[in-house]
Fold this protein.
Amino acid sequence: MDVIEGSIDLPGGGLHYEVQGNGPPLVFVHAGIADSRMWGPQVAVFADDYRVVRYDMRGFGRSPLPEGPFYRHEDLRALLDRLAIERAVLVGCSMGGQTVIDFTLTYPERVRALVPVCAGVTGFRYDGPPLPEWETIGAAMKAGNAAEANELIIRLWIDGVGRSPDEVDPYVRTLALAMNRPIVEKEIAGGGEGEARDSSAVDRLYEIGAPTLVIMSTLDPPNSQAISRMLGQEIPGARLAVIEQAGHLPNLEQPADFNRLLRDFLSTLN
């Protein structure tokens, strides 16, 4: 099946994307420790029935970090405009989940359905104890040790709660390290600006009217699990699904379970 690749010009830099398949639009937005490669197990399956779109958010993969502030959900709008997509199913993991939630609140008429996966939410404050891993990660970043910081981040998000590195699929772990390494290096080097945030989606979840499937995983850190449970409770009519034995990227670790959940959900849409 042919893959269409391209980029759109945005203030301060471009946005790289790939499109594959035909049918209703299905857009995948990656996590903050990854890039669009994380969706490989989904593109291979869903492109038979959907027009599958994945892209590298700015500062990730093949999309440069801009020099000025920007909004990731507005980047998503610009991409959909460029591809002439009026309405789509949006699947977002972690920071990508935060992005698709912000997009849904800003442009509800353009969202056919919403699938936040181990998602972040703008304005969320975790009331549990701070994760001790952040201190060691911060120390490695401050020391400029990209390799150590990368490994520590993957231990937190990919190995997850109570699991050792050798218990993780080597392919998943190797890909995660490869995707996250340039992100760590850019952060250590500095330069550019990050996403501007002037909204608080956490207080507006009740406004979401799109059919919603929230996916969480059992080995995700507790703050992320808390967000998923909140989304399942606060978004009207949302369904919460749990994937066992997976960390922060359950679509990579348990693709069969993830794809089944997503396909079953998509089959319920009008």
Summary: The CA atoms of residues 150 and 185 lie 9 Å apart. The first strand starts at residue 3 and ends at 10. The mean pLDDT is 94.
